[in-house]
Amino acid sequence: MGKLKVKKIVDKFQLEVLSGREHLDRLITTSDLSRPGLEMAGYFTYYPANRIQILGKTELTFFERLHPQEKEVRMLKLCHDKTPCVCISRGLDAPPELLAASKERNMPVLRSQLTTTQLISKLTHYLEAELAPQTAMHGVLVDIYGVGVLITGQSGIGKSETALELVKRGHRLVADDVVEIRQPEENELVGTAPELIRHLLEIRGVGIINVMTLFGAGAIRNYKKISMVCRLENWDNTKAYDRLGLDEQKMKIIDTYVPQITIPVRPGRNLAVIVEVAAMNFRLKRMGINAAESFAHRLTAAIEEHDDKHDDL
Where do the segments described as Important for the catalytic mechanism of dephosphorylation lie (predicted)? Predict the structure, then answer.
């Protein structure tokens, strides 16, 4: 899990800062949120202090019935050192005891005009995306017919040149050189480009080019789900490459296994066309059409038929 400053959610959702503006650099480390109903009643044994605390109409209505001394104690316990912030929904007024406790504990108190359910839904969705496990890989990510293809290989193998040819063929560039990868959900990887090199492509001998400027907005994407990996490697005459496509290779990225194919590189091979066909073949496999398996079945049937005829003789 990553980390996120409270200031980012303040800016993202236009939250009003009621207290602790100077402490918006407190860190959010989990996408889980908490509605401290039991804590308002005084039960702090299993208090999830590291979560954003959401106070809605139910919590604040119950809180108003408490004795003044109980209010102070409850709010001091609620404003834990590990708590990133407290957020009040529906534009409700913050109890004075909460504001006093937040100042004492140096913790921000925020307010939103959204209903409690809307606020929780939007915050959860945003935090799950921002705090998802992340990594960075050397490679190129291209959207080919809706399939996110991550092209990897050693430096100078021709990844960027292949991506340029794919863009010319109508496909869309997501990232070149460095691909930032997040895992927002189980078995799902989303790739994007670092802000500094977004929409840029490096071609040796030419230099840096801006794909969006040269080919238009339709030639780029800001992010794309990674469906398969194409690994480019120099042709090795001593190596037996898969000629049927029956061997399933997988590449582990974070905690997700992604289908991988290895494409040998040598003069005369049009890598862009090969990668494009690999992407189309991947789509067909997802639709239940596997040319390699179909050929294997036909070959087996032909052999069996031949053997039967030979036995008859």
Answer: 264-269
> What one-character DSSP code corresponds to residue 93?
P
Which residues contribute to the annotated binding site?
A: 153-160, 202
Residues 150 and 48 reside in one and the same domain = no
> CA 200, CA 296: separation in Å to the nearest integer?
43
CATH number at residue 268: 3.40.50.300
Active site residue 35: no
pLDDT value at residue 313: 55
Q: Based on the domain organization, do 186 and 270 belong to the same domain? A: yes
pLDDT at 303 over 80: no
What is the CATH classification number for the domain harbouring 11? 3.40.1390.20
Identify whether 311 is part of a domain. Answer: no
**Whether residue 105 sits in one domain with residue 222:** no
Look up 103 and say whether it is catalytic. Answer: no
Residues 104 and 165 in one domain: no
Q: Residue range 167-192: average pLDDT?
A: 93
User: Which range marks the domain in which residue 225 is found?
Assistant: 134-295
138-174 pLDDT per residue, tens: 999 999 999 999 999 998 899 999 999 999 999 999 9
What is the count of structural domains for the chain?
2
Q: How far apart are CA 126 and CA 132, in angstroms?
A: 10
pLDDT of residue 308: 65
Pairwise CA distance, residues 151 & 159, whole Å: 6
204 is catalytic: no
Quote the distance between the C-alpha of residue 16 and its chain's center: 28
Q: Using CA atoms, how far apart are residues 250 and 239, in angstroms rounded to an integer?
A: 19
Both tokens of 303, joined, read: 């052999």
Closest C-alpha among 79, 87, 24, 71 to residue 47? 79
Tell me the pLDDT band of 235, cut-offs 50, 70 and 90.
Answer: confident
What pLDDT is recorded for position 312?
Answer: 59
The answer as to whether 13 is a domain residue is yes
Examine the residue annotation and report whether 225 is marked as an active-site residue of this protein.
no
Q: Are residues 100 and 193 in the same domain?
A: no
